[in-house]
């Protein structure tokens, strides 16, 4: 479990996070959504230990990341995987070397073991045969899959996704969502996905959190967010992609009704 409590962060006197709190249970993936400029990526970077808050706590397995020394934080962060918005692949390295980088950094594996794990992970994300390519030779979708392979190669307990489908066409967005869902099933990690891909991201997460005004304004299941009486959250959801949101809502309600009918029959 990871718990974020009362997180505050200001930049040049402008308060971005104003007491944001969030809990991610073991094996649970939470979609973090909200209007642009609300600090979703800033929030995620705090969870990853890449930023320090002005105040608040980030507790993972009973340890507060905020109070840890650098060596302790680096050690704990090895249990995290982070998929950056732009992929953050090293341009001068091949796909193989990008994915191998976290394993070599550990410096405890033989090159034979590294190769076995890298090729296995590339196969899982559908990049077999692309190991000798450089990032500049990859499509946007391939680059995101390569970055995901690198994030997963050390079997993280926590996965953090910062806008994993930004700049991709709808078909590739769907394939990346499906890939995240399958890797979650394979690894069982807990995770947070920052996304504007509404309602597509709701299909594979267990909870949805809305960051608005510097705090978590709503937390609930995908079904519950469509039923909320909070006007701000409701208008945001409807204003994002109204036609898709309506269809997804109908799908969720239909599945719930079918489940109730099956339970009645039983």
CATH architecture of the domain at 2-79 and 156-241: 3-Layer(aba) Sandwich
Average pLDDT taken over every residue = 86
| Secondary structural class | alpha/beta
Annotation field: number of helices: 9
Oligomer: single chain
Distance between the termini: 35 Å
* Helix residue percentage: 40-55%
CATH topology of the domain at 2-79 and 156-241: Rossmann fold
**Fraction in beta strands:** 15-25%
In the predicted model, the low-confidence regions spanning at least 5 consecutive residues are: 241-248
CATH superfamily annotation of the domain at 2-79 and 156-241: P-loop containing nucleotide triphosphate hydrolases
Structure notes:
By secondary structure, the chain is α/β, with parallel strands linked by helices. The protein has a domain at 2-79 and 156-241: P-loop containing nucleotide triphosphate hydrolases (Rossmann fold). The chain is 42% helix and 23% strand. The chain contains nine helices and ten strands. It has helices at 40-47, 70-77, 95-106, 111-124, 140-152, 170-187, 222-227, 231-240, 242-265; strands at residues 2-11, 14-24, 29-33, 55-60, 63-64, 80-83, 158-162, 190-194, 207-212, 215-220. Helix 4 packs across helix 5, helix 5 (140-152) runs parallel beside helix 6 (170-187) and helix 8 (231-240) packs across helix 9 (242-265). It is globular, with a radius of gyration of 19 Å. The model is unreliable at 241-248 (pLDDT under 50).
What characteristics describe this protein?
9 helices, 266 residues, Rossmann fold, four-stranded antiparallel beta sheet, 10 strands
